[in-house]
Amino acid sequence: MTDLSTFPITAKWPAQHPDRLQLYSLPTPNGVKVSIALEELGLPYEAHKVSFQTNDQTTPEFLSLNPNNKIPAILDPQGPGGQPLALFESGAILIYLADKTGKLLPADPAQRYQAIQWLMWQMGGLGPMFGQLGFFHKFAGKDYEDKRPRDRYVAESKRLLGVLNQHLKGRTWLMGDDYTVADIAIFPWVRNLVGFYEAGDLVGFADFPEVARVLAAFVARPAVVRGLAVPA
């Protein structure tokens, strides 16, 4: 059995099953990317809640795994060469899990990079823009009299939804019939935009029927239902 006790993070979040992949996360759009992927892949894992209310993400134990103090992060006891691997950044983790299992990314090199490009599109555009919109629409930003910051992110979110809507025409998923890490990265953020952020009317979500269609198919997947609730 792999000994994970040498990793400081296990002092705060002890591994009850050190032979399983350890997930440190919260059920946020970025966090559930990894739990959904793990559920889709059927990989054994143990989830640990990193509570923002108690600033768990800034503790020395968590920073020892992710110096950027963001969730999610993982510790895989069976990493490359059979050695433990600590990894942060949700996009990097998704690619790692896909490569580890040979699933959720196309085998064809060209299609593989096309899927990764949509993953990067989410990481660099969709997630940050939706997050800023949520701040200015629902949280502290809603008290600003000047609505130009909010409107800037509304406009960019609409543009990104238009890009996604156009690409999905005639496709079941981002990569056609193949369900990939690109879908797992993008649709938790779309769900958050119209659900938790309550910004569906603000961005005119009804104008993006292809996005709505694929979102409905995404949230109906059993593995997605399970992954959205991790960690409890």
From TrEMBL:
<dbReference type="Pfam" id="PF02798">
    <property type="entry name" value="GST_N"/>
</dbReference>
<dbReference type="InterPro" id="IPR036249">
    <property type="entry name" value="Thioredoxin-like_sf"/>
</dbReference>
<dbReference type="InterPro" id="IPR036282">
    <property type="entry name" value="Glutathione-S-Trfase_C_sf"/>
</dbReference>
<protein>
    <submittedName>
        <fullName>Glutathione S-transferase N-terminal domain-containing protein</fullName>
    </submittedName>
</protein>
<comment type="similarity">
    <text>Belongs to the GST superfamily.</text>
</comment>
<dbReference type="Pfam" id="PF00043">
    <property type="entry name" value="GST_C"/>
</dbReference>
<feature type="domain" description="GST C-terminal">
    <location>
        <begin position="108"/>
        <end position="232"/>
    </location>
</feature>
<dbReference type="InterPro" id="IPR004045">
    <property type="entry name" value="Glutathione_S-Trfase_N"/>
</dbReference>
<dbReference type="InterPro" id="IPR040079">
    <property type="entry name" value="Glutathione_S-Trfase"/>
</dbReference>
<feature type="domain" description="GST N-terminal">
    <location>
        <begin position="18"/>
        <end position="105"/>
    </location>
</feature>
<dbReference type="InterPro" id="IPR010987">
    <property type="entry name" value="Glutathione-S-Trfase_C-like"/>
</dbReference>
<dbReference type="InterPro" id="IPR004046">
    <property type="entry name" value="GST_C"/>
</dbReference>
